[in-house]
């Protein structure tokens, strides 16, 4: 099956009892047993739910994995993955990481005796130099949020294999339409399904997808023991969302290119970050590991004044100021005061997160309207 066919058909079967073409919302907490242990594979909805099973199977196929697990949020998925580690274990990650991931690593798990290293992963020597006998995991996010840096997943996988480490890839920005980390050697793909996968800004959910049976067992055990599961109605919404993932992503990419080119030529714009631009520092890696470049763009204004950025954000008509990304509607954000406010200012500057940096999630509206909105807002 090609990608679009998979997005529509993978994991879902018409309902065997009624023929309903859409997977029903199995709004039930428990399942009848005819005799103790004699059931149809479902005992209790923390462990399994048929709507969730359909979504998990669809996700596994889209990411070329064997098993999918859906969580109550992207953060819950990260939580479930990190819980595989023990006090004393170390994780190497990027210094340009989603703010929530940075927060759970440093404000929650560090207190449980885990150690996290943040480095510029665009140079794999930085990664390898941090490996020691306590290292267990490499955590990659690519493209990164919000600087749109690209990390070489295959290169990280080589380092991980050499030192027997788990490689986790947060594939939220790229989606399986643009990039399949398992094919590039990652052990676990993690998603905030809240973003492009669900695609309509109406649900919060996360996922982990793996090939390995043992790894799946471990993650499923932790999830069932700790309980961070999504409800069946939310699973239904994500299932519906991914049926149009390929069509939406094509338009996101197309609009993303037009917006990036527009900003690139704008006299008031200092810098544009979009992996599809030939002068992006890791464009060559993006070209290797991604099928196209997506609709996430960051840019910095000339003079780098926070006030100027705030004025632009207030003037936008279609780019709505809001946290989150990946929905059909265009959104804009100001990482320094919003998503990345939890990162200390000093760390932010060190990682290249300027005060006037504006992040756009370019939606799938008509491009003429989006460009006109940028024109009036930036002036
Ligand atoms: C949003 C996001 C998360 C967290 O997911 P939630 O669904 O908001 O809990 C993790 N990683 C990235 C890259 C994200 O954008």
Concise description?
The protein is of the alpha/beta class and 379 residues long.
How would you characterize the overall build of this protein?
- The protein is of the alpha/beta class.
- Helices cover 37% and strands 15% of the residues.
- The chain has 14 helices and 12 strands.
- A 7-stranded mixed beta sheet has the order 1-7-6-5-4-2-3, with helices on both faces. It has a 5-stranded mixed beta sheet with strand order 8-9-12-11-10, covered by helices on one side.
- Helix 10 (245-264) runs parallel beside helix 14.
- The protein is globular and about 75 Å long.
- The termini are far apart.
- The mean pLDDT is 95.
- The structure holds pyridoxal-5'-phosphate.
- Pyridoxal-5'-phosphate is lined by residues 73-75, 98, 100-101, 141, 145, 170, 172-173, 192, 194-195, 204, 206.
- Pfam families: Cys_Met_Meta_PP.
Kindly state the percentage of residues in helix. Answer: 25-40%
Give the N-terminus to C-terminus distance in angstroms.
47 Å
**Main sheet?**
7 strands, mixed
Query: Which structural class fits the helix and strand makeup?
Result: alpha/beta
Strand proportion: 15-25%
How are strands sequenced across the largest beta sheet?
1-7-6-5-4-2-3
- Low-pLDDT stretches are none
Task: Give the radius of gyration.
Answer: 21 Å
SSE string, helix = H, strand = E? Answer: HHEHEHEHEHEHEEHHHEHEHEEHEH
Tertiary shape: globular
Average pLDDT, to the nearest integer? Answer: 95
Count of runs of 4 or more consecutive helical residues: 14
Give the distinct bound molecules.
Answer: pyridoxal-5'-phosphate
Number of strands: 12
């Amino acid at each position: 099956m090609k990608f679009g066919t998979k997005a529509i058909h993978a994991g879902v079967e018409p309902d065997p009892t009624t023929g309903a073409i859409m997977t029903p919302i199995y709004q039930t907490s428990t399942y009848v047993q005819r005799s103790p242990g004699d059931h149809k594979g479902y005992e209790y909805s923390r462990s399994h739910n048929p709507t969730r099973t359909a979504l998990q199977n669809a996700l596994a196929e889209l990411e070329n994995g064997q098993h999918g697990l859906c969580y109550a949020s992207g953060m819950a998925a990260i939580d479930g993955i990190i819980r595989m580690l023990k006090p004393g274990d170390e994780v190497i990650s990027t210094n340009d990481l989603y703010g929530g991931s940075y927060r759970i690593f440093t404000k929650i798990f560090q207190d449980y005796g885990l150690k996290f290293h943040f480095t510029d992963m665009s140079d794999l020597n930085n990664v390898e130099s941090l490996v020691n006998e306590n290292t267990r995991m490499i955590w990659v996010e690519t493209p990164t949020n919000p600087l749109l840096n690209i990390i070489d997943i295959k290169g990280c996988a080589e380092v991980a294999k050499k030192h027997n480490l788990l490689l986790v890839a947060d594939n939220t920005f790229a989606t399986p339409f643009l990039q399949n980390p398992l094919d590039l050697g990652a052990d676990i793909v993690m998603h905030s399904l809240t973003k492009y996968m669900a695609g309509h800004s109406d649900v919060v959910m996360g996922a982990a997808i793996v090939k390995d049976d043992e790894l799946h067992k471990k993650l499923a055990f932790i999830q069932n023991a700790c309980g961070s599961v999504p409800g069946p109605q939310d699973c239904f919404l994500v299932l519906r969302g991914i049926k149009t993932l390929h069509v939406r992503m094509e338009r996101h990419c197309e609009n993303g290119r037009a917006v990036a080119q527009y900003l690139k030529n704008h006299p008031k714009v200092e810098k544009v970050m979009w992996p599809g631009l030939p002068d992006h520092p890791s464009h060559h890696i993006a070209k290797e590991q991604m099928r196209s470049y997506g609709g996430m763009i960051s840019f910095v204004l000339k003079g780098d004044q926070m006030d100027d950025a705030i004025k632009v954000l207030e003037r936008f008509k279609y780019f709505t100021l809001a946290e989150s990304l990946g929905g059909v509607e265009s959104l804009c954000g100001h990482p320094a005061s919003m998503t990345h406010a939890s990162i200390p200012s000093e760390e932010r500057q060190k990682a290249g997160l300027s005060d006037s940096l504006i992040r756009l999630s370019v939606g799938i509206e008509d491009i003429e309207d989006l460009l006109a909105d940028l024109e009036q807002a930036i002036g």
